[in-house]
Amino acid sequence: MKKKLIVVLLSLFIVFSVFSGGDKETSTEDSGGFIAAPTVSYAMGITTEFPQQLELADYEKQTGEKLEFTGNPLFAEREKSKDLPSVDQRLPEEPLVVLPYDVIGKYGGKLKGMCISYESGTSEVMAWRHANLVRFSDDMSTIVPNVAKEWKWNSDFTEITFTLRKGHKWSDGAPFGADDIVFYVNDILLNKEIHKVIPSPWGAAVPSVEKINDVTVKLKFENAFTGLLYYLGGSGSYFDAFAPKHFLEQYHITYNPNADKEAKANGYDNWVQQFGTYWNKWKDAIVAGPEGVRVPTLESHILQEVPTTQRRIYIANPYYFKVDTAGNQLPYVDYHYERFLEKQLWPLEIMNGNIDQKAQNMPLDIYTVLKENEKKGQYELQLPSGQVGPTMIFNQTSDDPVLGKIFSDVRFRYAMSLAINRNEINESLFLGLGTPEQALPLNVPYVTDKDRKFMTEYNPDKANELLDEMGLKMGPDGYRLSPDGKPFTVLWEYTLQYVWTTDFPALVSEYWKNVGVKVLLKEVTTQLTRDKQKSNTLDITSEWMAPFEPSMISTPHLFLPPYSGHWPIMGLPWMDWKTSNGASGVKPPAWVLDLWDIAAEWTTLVPGSSRYLELGRKIIKINQENLPVIGTLGNIPLITVVSDRLGNAPEWTINSTFFGYSYPYRADQWFIK
């Protein structure tokens, strides 16, 4: 049947080529021998409800033929020895059929990437293998099926029913289904020992779950949750809405009464701590240790061996749920290689052709040297837009009462913003490609150009005036004193993941010193930065990126205290007060309470509605007036390196963690030429 299908499609292809003049990219050699199947470039009459993909039944109906499946030769020996079932038994009964961008790819090879270290810049490599319920298409606006075959909302967005794929399996061959979503909601999200408070953004909607059958599950919410799919497809793509019950229940007290005893025998404090070794909201944490090799996944690649401090190696998942239009099980690439390297080594590695795709944490100041060596290194540089420059967030809830009072005074934050020479930063560190402006949500209809220019002029005289007005007198050494007469010093512990280059904090600290604010700089690891955020012991942080509209819709707390989706960046005592209903922590100021009230309604609104736009403008206005996040530049392109040897890699339009980096660009259909 497969040969017959290829003949039929080849005829269509020949007819198309006669009228189009053909294309060298469709040669047998480039496409691995499967030229006669639909792609995005040559759809051959195939139409799709969702961009670039369709369900198997629809595809077979349009072609009039049953699609036969081919597996990766990588697994041939395992199949022969009966260690692994045949590909048609490994795939779901309803695999997702995807149209590759240009050609049918070929199996093999290694996709080479690099990061700074564990928990530092690893999101991009994670995105190569993502597999959540839904995802964004590469138009950055359309939500498309992925692990979930389909979904249906009720009329007021308080219930959503997901239909999964029959016969879908975890990477260890165990069945995946509704039970894994029920387990995630009931036994992880709502478990009081794992989560004292339902984690965001689920907590705003308060979920419950109902299993309809093995492949159908209904999520119910106390409040409308219009942003759920935007979350799961974008910034929440890193946080699966399911978990392998068959594997994790052995560590869960509900299913194993001895779980706590066994955990303590294994050196853990309790069962929750041991459970956290095998399940973590942040998926990358699971594969950061030796136990990650054992944890089943639905992703395109699975951890092959115990990771080291230098690298992690992933191998193709033999149970992955997608096929191309010729019936080849994806992914095409056999291995993902992730190396941990200091940033100063990145340009050399790229120029030597040792990296296939890289964008996350790429500083613009290396663009010139990379561009000069583009041909030699056999790569292409892309500059997708939509980034913002580094930001500064002062800790208004500092445990130091003097610093906390100074940082909480809006005059101080205004002064620090006015003291920054954004034009100089733009020219000296960002090749003049950015735009001086505050850090506000991107791609949203309720932000104006005037908003973005608020307090961005370079005006050290006004900054000095505001600091004098606060009572921060200048000492004999040229630096200001606290109101108590003691030296006033800001300790800026920064990580390169978020300040891009050491030159940035060095330059900004000089601007601040010019208005009498003494700054001590210290480079630290991303992990230490996050640990200190969680313990509320940072004076200032930069770990923040302006969200795009899909993330604002689903997770507005990204732009209101605590300004993060993972842990509080600023305002931990405020969050303690909120989650304890005032029993502990510190009551926040009125502007914070106003933002929280707005967010509670915001997540129930339909995007684009008049109320949605009204509240969007209020969120911007409150943040603008209080300036908790001090921005520097906007419209900064992000250097994206794409190796010439990488096939089916598209032109990036937006490259951001809020869309899951390469998640919309379908790394599972990339191949090594």
Summarize it.
With 673 residues, the protein is an alpha+beta fold. α11 crosses α12 (271-278) and α18 (410-418) runs antiparallel to α21 (460-469).
Layout of secondary structure:
Layout: H1 2-20, H2 28-31, E1 53-55, H3 56-63, H4 76-80, H5 87-90, E2 96-98, E3 110-115, H6 123-127, E4 134-136, E5 143-145, E6 150-153, E7 159-163, H7 178-189, H8 202-205, E8 207-213, E9 216-221, H9 228-233, H10 245-248, H11 259-265, H12 271-278, H13 283-286, E10 301-303, E11 311-316, E12 322-324, E13 335-340, H14 346-351, E14 357-358, H15 367-372, H16 374-377, E15 379-382, E16 387-388, E17 393-394, H17 401-408, H18 410-418, H19 422-429, E18 435-436, H20 449-452, H21 460-469, E19 489-494, H22 496-499, H23 503-513, E20 518-523, H24 526-534, E21 540-541, H25 549-554, H26 572-579, H27 590-602, H28 610-626, E22 633-636, E23 640-643, E24 646-647, E25 671-672
Parallel strand pairs: 2-12, 3-13, 19-20
Antiparallel strand pairs: 1-2, 4-5, 6-7, 7-9, 8-9, 10-11, 11-13, 14-23, 15-23, 16-22, 17-21, 18-22, 24-25
Helix pairs in contact: 11-12, 18-21, 27-28
How would you describe this structure to a colleague?
With 673 residues, this protein is of the alpha+beta class. Among the domains are: 131-282, Dipeptide-binding Protein, Domain 1 (Dipeptide-binding Protein, domain 1, Alpha-Beta Complex), CATH 3.90.76; 387-634, Dipeptide-binding Protein, domain 3 (Roll). 32% of the residues lie in helices and 14% in strands. It is built from 28 helices and 25 strands. It has a 4-stranded mixed β-sheet, with no helix packed on it. It has a 4-stranded antiparallel β-sheet with strand order 6-7-9-8. A 3-stranded mixed β-sheet has the order 1-2-12. Helix 11 crosses helix 12, helix 18 packs antiparallel against helix 21 and helix 27 packs antiparallel against helix 28. It is globular. The protein starts with a helix and ends with a strand. Residues 1-34 have low confidence and may be disordered.
